């Protein structure tokens, strides 16, 4: 049942990305083109997503635990640090250059578009690089002599 729910949620997300036109990188890139062919439709897609998601979070987080999990996995801090800023910058840079965010690239991967395949492979490699750097940083911090 768990995998069926994951599949249905992914299907709904993919359909939403496709129907909204956000699977088209030109449409996303036009949102960032304020001096040229600016397309504000991305604002409406994000607004609709917030209108659906906010009440959903409110309802789900009222329960003691997720339906298909043992506990909620929420951020443990509200600290804005180098990792958060660096990750946000990298995400925005990739999105602005390619016209895809990781979530939107996955439904479009089946098109076989080389740009999508390169972008998706790049962000997956980036995930592994980031994990490696985080583990290396933690190891160095743990191995550092106490002052």
TrEMBL record:
Keywords: Membrane, Transmembrane, Transmembrane helix. Pfam families: DUF6691 (PF20398). The chain crosses the membrane at residues 41-63, 84-110, 116-134. This is Sulphur transport domain-containing protein. It comes from Aliiroseovarius pelagivivens.
